[in-house]
Structures are given as structure tokens and as C-alpha cells.
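Table S2 (continued). Query chain:
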Amino acid sequence: MRFRKRRGPAVSLALASHPLPTIAMTGGLTAAAALSGRPLRECALVAVTVLAGQLTVGWMNDLVDRGRDRQVGRQDKPVAMGWIDPGTVAFAIAVATLAVIPLSVANGTEAGIAHLGAVASAWLYNLWFQKSWLSWLPYAVSFGLLPAFLSYGGWGGGSHGSPPTIQMTVLAALLGIGIHVLNVLPDLVEDRETGVRHLPLRIALRTGAPRLLYAASAYTLLVAAGIVWTALTVGLRQ
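Corresponding output:
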């Protein structure tokens, strides 16, 4: 999506948050909480917690990558386009971080630790891993921690729930790898021009981007189907 017209600070902040992935993650985890039988107030808490975490991840990505985005002329990046000051985005990250910590703990101690670990892993991707062949690792870690966030989740501090099943944890981590590949595929040309050498780019240079797209799509759909089957048969919690 390209934006030709300059936007105000509020709209620029929203666009810099990577709104589509943020909405998808928030909606998906909230729906998963509801399907697991969590009451409405806990589902609402899950939604707010995940939203706050995703906002920090999206904003940090645009802030860290603003130099590379400017280099390749990205017109869908408000920070790189100069529509919003980087200091404003950094302040927004700080505010969201101060919110996500108590929100995470409000889901329960173990659930809070799992969610904060997932967010921290995503930050590490933005700060370093996205440039290396280990780019898949933070995605696997972040997604792999999400079943624990849901299975241990409750209302208020303390211990709730029980550990997630091993099957669900492994499948969630595998799903994260597929999401990573699909997420970076549209930017392969720009990443190559700016010296980024994450794993999907290395594979695409050998196989071609179309083949990688087909393979990643089939892989992700297969893993997603496995998650649905596991949820219906084995379940989320041990």
C-alpha cells in the first residue's frame, strides 16, 4: 500500500504500527482465547495486551528501518517519509511498553512472562536478527510462546491455567516461521538493495521468489490446519 499524501501525527502513528499484522495478531489471539472458553473480560484483556505489544513491535520496526526505507524510497513508511518525528515514535514505544508490562502480568504471572518474552523476541528481530540467516528464530520463539500465554492466562496476577500441550507449542513455532517468510517476501528487492540477508532472501536467491511463495504458502496453510486439528483433538492445555 502506497500513501502519496502527507498524514498527520495520529494517522502516521497508526500507519507506522504495521496495522494489518497488528490487527491480525490481536484478532487471532482474542478469537483463540474465546474459543478456548475464556470469559468475555479475559478475552478483552487478551485483546488489549496483544494490541499494546504489537504496537511496540510495529513502531520499533519502522523506527529502526527508517534509514533503509528512505534509501529505497519507501512511500508507505511514515517515519522514513518524514511525516512524523522519530522522537515521537520513540516516545510512543515507551508509553506502549509501560502499558504492556502491567497488562501482561494482569493475565497471570506465567502468561505475562510468556507474552513479554514473545514481545522481547520480536524486538530482537527488529534490532538484529532480521539482517541474518537466523531471522526465522525470533518468529519461532515469539509464536511458540503464544500458546503458553493463552493456556496460563486468567484474570489478575498469580498462577492460572496449566502448561500448553507440546504439540500446540511446536506447531505455533512452525507457524511463526511460515509467517516470517510470507511477511518479508514483498520486500525482497528492497532488502537485497540495502544489504539485508535474512533467510528467506537467501533461499529466494537460489529458488526464485515465486517458488518460495508457493512453498511458504502451502507450508503455512498445512501448519495452520495442523493447529486447528490439534486444538480439536489434543487441545491447548495439558
